[in-house]
Structures are given as C-alpha cells and as structure tokens.
Amino acid sequence: MATRALTSASSRTHTGEKPYRCEECGKQFSRPSHLKEHMRTHTGEKPYRCEECSKQFSLPSHLKEHMRTHTGEKPYRCEECGKQFSQLGNLKRHMGSHTGEKPYRCEECSKQFSELGNLTKHMRTHTGEKPYRCEECSKQFSELGSLKSHMRTHTCEKPYRCEECGKQFCTASNLKTHIRTHTGEKPYRCEECSRQFSQLSSLKAHIRTHTGEKPYRCEECGKQFSRLDDLKIHKRTHTGQKPYKCEECSRQFSMLATLKKHMRTHTGEKPYRCEECSKQFRDLGSLKTHMRSHTGEKPYRCEECGKQFSELGSLTKHMRTHTGEKPYRCEECSKQFRELGNLKRHMQTHTGEKPYRCEECSKQFSRLGILKKHMRTHSGENP
Description:
One of its GO terms (molecular function) is zinc ion binding. This is Zinc finger protein 678-like. By secondary structure, the protein is α+β, with helices and mostly antiparallel strands. The chain has a domain at about 30-100: Double Stranded RNA Binding Domain (2-Layer Sandwich). Helices cover about 45% and strands about 15% of the residues. It has 14 helices and 26 strands. The chain is elongated and about 125 Å long.
C-alpha cells in the first residue's frame, strides 16, 4: 500500500498533478507532506528547535542548514576557486561570479542580476516600496540590511572596530571607508580631471563641479546645492540653529569648520604657512588670499569700470563707490559709511578714544595715520 502511494506521488512529478490544495491561499501541492509543511507559513508553527541557541524552524532542512552556523561545516565547495559554503543556494549564487550569468532581468529598465533577491531589492527603486519599518522612529527602508544598520543609531551599537586606531562603527561599510584614512587608498577616480576619492559619495559630489548639477534645493529661498550636507548647513541660516559651541567663550556657530577656525583665535594656532614668505594663517582661505600678493592674481573684476581685486571683500567695498551704498550707520549722529573701518574710526570722535600712542612723547591719537605723521616731528623726516 505504501509502495503504491509512493509510486503515485512520484508519477505526479511527471504529470504535474497537484491534488492537495491549501484552504488559506489556494496554493496546490503534489504531496500531502508538502501541504503540511506549507501550512506552517500560515500558522507560524516552528516545531524544529536548535539545541544550541533555541532558535526554531518550520522545516527540518532549515534546522539542518542552521546547525552549520554552530559547527562551521561547509559541505558545498566551488570547483573553480575552492571556496566553501554552508548552503547549496549560496554556492549556486557564488557560481554566477565565475560564469557572469545574470538570469534575472528587470522588466522596467532591463538591468540584469545574478540573484533573484537582488532583482527584488532593485525593483523597489522603481516602485518606491519600503517594507522594513523602524519600530523606534517609524522610518522605512527598502532593504532589511539598511533597517538593521539604522537600528544601531538607536541602540548606539558599534560592532565594527578598526584594528589600527580602535575607532568603532555601526556598519561594515563605514569601517571599510575609515580604513582608507590609514591606507591612503582612493579607489574612486574622476574621469574628467583624474582626481581620486576614498568614498563613492565624494566622487559623485565632485562630478557635479563639472556638470554644474545642483539637485538639492532649499524650500525656503529656492537656492540649490550640489551636496546634501551643504543644503543642511544652509538651512541653518533660516532656522538660526547654531549647534557648535565654543567651550572657551560660549560663542556658537552653524558649522563645525567655522568653530574649528574660531578655536584658533584662542589657541593661536596658525597651521597654514606661505611657502614664499613663511607667513602663517589660521585658515586656508586667508592663505589663498595672501598668495595673490605674491602672484599678483586679481580674480574679482568690477563690471562697471573693469578694476580688478585680489579679494571678494575688496570688490564688494569698491562696488559701493558706484552704487553710493553706505550700509554702516553711526548710532550717535546718523552719519553713514561705506566701510566698517571708517565707522569705527568715526566713533572715536564721539568717544574721545585715542588708541594710538607715541612712544617718544606719549601723545595719543585717534588714527594710525595721524600718529605716523606725528612721528616725523621726532625723526626730523619731512612730512
């Protein structure tokens, strides 16, 4: 009787007959044992339990595969490179790396994949589906791995540690990128100018300096940016947010880089040195501006009269000679000035302040130019 049942089930593999039907979803099977196993996907029953870690499974084959994570057994070996795997499915997927076979094709854009799972993930870029949701903040993700990485921002777990410096990271990719700060590796190269980068995202942002693309737009003022980080920083000009605070004087800044520059006013550090005259500067921008005093470069040109300047600030001041703009106003007498320095000097006529003192006779002056003229009375030099 058993032999007849076995023969009957075997024959169905040839005839395609599937007489056993699931009442829940209508799916059909050729054997009652297959229907029984399938029913567990509806009931959630997992009768097979791992003795090592108590994890439970719905099929004995799944338990068997799982046990290899404890034993380290990898019975499936690649004939090409000798690499071994704990599951047959993993070996089959790996074989695609040798054959180049990509049997799974996207109907939307024709891109091909070696694994069905990768095609499934890719399809979400077209559908916008994000089936994985964070229970903490409700943020949704298109991949389970992305959700797991995100969860570490809540748990603060950083399981990936750099062997060089001990710094820890929440994702393996972040550790991989960090390691390049030690090795100096820059695998991403710009085809336009050959500049190399340690991160793909940095290369993509750089490419926009060639294309002029600015995909990130401020909803407040419409200004556009080539990098998301630049947009985030810009938004603080609208919100007034200044998250970076100086521990010395409590002054706050909207950018970390600006705080770092400011800190040098306390430490006196001047890390940027001119190769021509050895003068040192607190920030790179000041050094670049100074270098123009050696090269004679004047990249900022007045559209009105053609006069050129080495600094943007100097051009801005000069433009006021054409526009007549005087943005600096004295609170005492309402007199207005084109430059802040002129306003400061004028204020001394109200305060009586004379900060410039003659070393010879101790006479004091409100302006440096007047002190210099006075010094000639001591030196005998003709004024």
